[in-house]
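Bench log. Compound arrived from synthesis this morning; before running ITC I wanted a structural hypothesis for how PRP sits in the protein. Inputs:
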Amino acid sequence: MSNARLDVLISEEELRAKVAEMAAEIDRDYAGQQVLLIAVLKGSVHFLSDLGRALTLDSEIDFLQTSSYHGGKSSSGVVQIRKDLDINIEGLHVIIVEDIVDTGVTLSHLRELLSTRKPKSLKVVALLSKTGTRTVYPPVEYIGFEIPNEFVVGYGLDYAERYRNLPYIAILREE
Ligand code: PRP
């Protein structure tokens, strides 16, 4: 995309306030318990980092990586595990940390996969959820922002690996 325009959708300040709000809610729900935050690479790294530091809970982190977009702008519908967890999650309170839920295919696959490993509980926190784009409907217990069906980048989200470093979320438009 040679001529691209970025229109800010969610500012840095709005992100900061929402992450604090979500952390407070999770803190309340899991009071006195230890949780394992599982970040789905790469898009959720900044969200994990900010959310993880905003939580006062006793928490650990681990990472896994899937891929379905292959650098393009629409999902291939095929979910591959490119990097699996290091930690055995049996008996743990697990929270999957996602940057965005779009078709729901990635999350549906992950929920199924991680459930077979017998965590004590399994919930999902997603910073962004697209409206009207689901082909499958996995539960998402904590959602930061419902957003329109636009291609968004920033705060971890990319287009062909670019723009992940932006401190805000923007709609990427071709000019
Ligand atoms: C993105 C995002 C989710 C998934 C959501 O990951 O981080 O994991 O797509 O889409 P879905 O609901 O349609 O399945 P991507 O595969 O682009 O990898 P990335 O995070 O490394 O950019």
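What the model suggests: The CA atoms of residues 101 and 129 lie 5 Å apart. The first helix runs from residue 12 to 29.
ITC booked for Thursday regardless.
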